[in-house]
Design brief:
139 residues, single chain, PMP22/EMP/MP20/Claudin, mainly alpha, tight junction, elongated, Claudin, transmembrane
Length: 139
């Protein structure tokens, strides 16, 4: 049986993956460039914000899992034991990649959350105004 901190980290990473997957789907539906779902720009931006929230939660779950494991590694390293210091676990590149991924996921989710329309624009409809075409004749 695995240790409790490893099982907890594993569960948090699975939750993070699921939240990230659903965040991708919701964000794609909420993008202005896609024609999936509602045509109302305000509704689409709210859907994009929901995707951003899912990304932020996914990043926080990843951050919690990686930090929990790093805390356990630190505790085991400084604990008095019979294992020599050169045989103990240390921080590896996987922990740094995990922290970087969590930071980028939270940053990306935060940027998606900033796509919420301003309060004064919420009730308005946006229509693309077509430019009058001018016919030019070259002689």
């Amino acid at each position: 049986s695995l240790a409790v901190h490893i099982q907890t980290s594993r569960a948090l990473m699975v939750i993070s993956l699921l939240l990230g997957f659903f965040g991708i789907i919701v964000s794609v539906v909420g993008m202005k460039c896609t024609k999936v779902g509602e045509e109302d720009p305000v509704t689409k931006s709210r859907i994009a914000v929901a995707g951003g929230v899912l990304f932020v939660l996914s990043g926080l779950c990843t951050l919690a899992a990686v930090s929990l494991y790093a805390t356990q590694v630190t505790y085991e390293f400084f604990r008095e034991s019979t294992v020599p210091i050169n045989a103990r676990y240390e921080f590896g590149s996987a922990l740094c990649v995990g922290w970087g991924a969590a930071s980028l996921t939270v940053l990306g989710g935060s940027l998606l959350c900033c796509s919420c329309p301003a309060k004064e624009r919420r009730g308005q409809q946006y229509y693309r105004q077509s430019q009058p075409s001018t016919a030019r004749e070259y002689v």
